[in-house]
Amino acid sequence: MGLSVQFLWLIPALPLLAAGIGSIAPSRDRTLASGTAIAALALSFLLSCGALLTALANPADHATHNFAWFELGHGAVRLGWLLDPLTALMCIMVTFVGLLIFIFSTGYLRADARFKQFFCFLSLFAAAMLGLLIANSLLLLFICWELVGLASYLLIGFWFHKPAAAAAAKKAFITTRIGDLGLLLGMVWLYDSTGSLLFYDGGNGVLEPSVLAALGGSTAIGLLIFCGAVGKSGQFPLHVWLPDAMEGPTPVSALIHAATMVAAGVFLMARVFPLLTPDALTVIALTGAITALMGALIAVAQNDIKRILAFSTVSQLGYMMLAIGVGSWTTAIFHLLTHACFKALLFLGAGSVIHAAHHEQDIRQLGGLRGPMKTTFATFAIGMMALSGVPFIFSGFWSKEAILHAAHAWDVSQLPLYLGLAAVVLTAFYMTRLMAEVFFGAARSDAAGHAQENPPTMTVPLGLLAVCAVGLGFLGTPYWPWLQHTLDPLAHVEAGGYGLMMVSIVLVALGLGSGWAIYGRKSRVKSSAADPLAVRAPSVFAFLAARMKFDELYAATFGRLNHGLAVFADALDRHLWDGAVRFFSRLGEFAGVVNRETDEGALNGGFDATSEGLRKRAHSYSRAQTGDAHGYLLMVAFGFVVLVFAVLLGGAR
Amino acid sequence: MNLAPLQLCLLFSSALFCIGLIGALSRSNTILVLLGIELMLNAANLNFIAFWRYGANSEPATGVMFVIFAIAVAAAEAAVGLALVITIYRHQKNIRLQDATRLKG
Lengths: 653, 105
What we know:
- The complex is a heterodimer.
- Chain A is mostly helical.
- Chain A is about 70% helix and about 5% strand.
- Chain A is built from 25 helices and 2 strands.
- A two-stranded antiparallel sheet of chain A has the order 1-2.
- In chain A, a hairpin with a 2-residue loop joins strand 1 and strand 2.
- Chain A is elongated, with a radius of gyration of 38 Å.
- The termini of chain A are far apart.
- Chain B has a single domain, classed as Helix Hairpins (Orthogonal Bundle), CATH 1.10.287.
- In chain B, about 75% of the residues lie in helices and about 0% in strands.
- Chain B is built from 3 helices and no strands.
- In chain B, helix 2 packs antiparallel against helix 3.
- Chain B starts with a helix and ends in a 13-residue tail after the last helix.
């Protein structure tokens, strides 16, 4: 059963509906919130599978369904859905990984009072992410992009009563906004140049040859769009928010900050790949390579289990950008899909460990969990080997090999290849360190000592993800590059290069071996013992542990600049504008006083005096009214007599 | 002393007016004051009749008409006056005109 492109909107609409139901459901009804969220995402998964069937029928075809959103000026703003293998595969990945993480969350957040809100936010995130994937318009993509950022903000700050979580949420939101500004500018520029934001529009879309030829290649537009991806995908130099985002609940880290949302930047670059000029690609490749190496270096010296994984994510996203930069976006998507599975697996494994060890995240405090948590250990080990790139079986090996081969074939520079190879060693090294510290040796705290295996709601998703972490790699081996050819039938896959493969295998072995030699053979005894590397190279280790001082650097430069500007603006406001406003208010007050004095003294005084005189006169007249009727009558008679005399004496007539 | 009938009538009516005035001024009973005023009014009515009867043109019954109107108005006025007297009695339990001074300025 295929799903035609007209009904593609159902995929994001279902989780959105679940989010709506979740938002109005009573807080106490936990099963309603989680049940609707899981059911909606499961349905979306089935629909995504249907969409993939449709897309596979004709992989080279970009099926679209465009419609006018609203009229503006002498044109209409148009949006649309797009169905091709890239969309369909990404939708399947997001819904599948998301579904497992939703199920895991029902166990992980069992005791949380805001369980319902959590599922509401998760559904909102899933809806926004799926909307982003099916968008056929850069505008619609941008809208969903921002919604994804909002959901990420809400979920990082889910435990907002912790100041660190609130600060991390703000940091993530603001840092990604910096990149989004670039994306917005690029989008406006693109619209100005081409008059359209639709990707594919029967020959008039911005990604179609005629429009591209008319545009003539614009490096600036590509780089501005890349800015958005830098922010969202945690690339150097905007990677600082991603490790802090680990303050959120662990399923959030797995879903948003490892598997899906951070991949949105890679997806965006893969989507707009035809727009990118060779110059822009060079920048992207170097940024990716630097990020890959830097993330791996910092990960070596971290002690928080989730932060190690976060920096590993930064590093892996760097690989994906590197792949896009060297021109092989299909490889980037291949690595994105495999990485989504094994990184979600690793994060959920970490979540399982954290949940079992009563929210102890410091690897120095853990240890010896191999015994009590067998399922978690086994699945985590599979994830770890996939991430390290252990040869032939695990998916990470094939996708990473594909990237390294693509980098090798890049004719501009071999520098990204060397940086990538260095990161391979480091990746294997820090993952071995993590495994050795957490699962081997003896428990170094009470929390770790009392750890128990978690219920099936948490271990079953781990198992399923472990299967994918192994199996997904075989979709894109150099011998049967089904995935690459499905995504782009014209893709050229580097098939040869056994030499490079051997080098990379040796490097992985080197990383694993040295990691085991340093951390595994003689495991840590006390949690307060110094790290073996810190003993040998204290200053380097401290520099890496402080995350290469990026936060301090930003605080000292941008932070201080911003603070200075804020102080200046404050002074401007307080003294200049406020002064002017105060002056005018004083002026008004003065005019009021003058008015009042004139009114009361001159005008009112005259009226007052006149009416006072009238009142006195009237008072004296009123004395005549004695109230004595006889008196009145007497006066009448007297008057009559006077009148008679006047008539008689005056001689009337 | 030889007086015309008109002068006699006028003298009579003047006497009647003075009697009414003196009565109205000298009595403290409000009803008697009203009676005095009624006498004064009738003196005026007498003058109307006299001037009509002995005047130049006595054919149209103008004097009689005036008097009939004056009597009708006086009757209505007497009714209002007596109603006022009753109201005053209710307020001050007597009808002394000297006591009804509440409207003085």
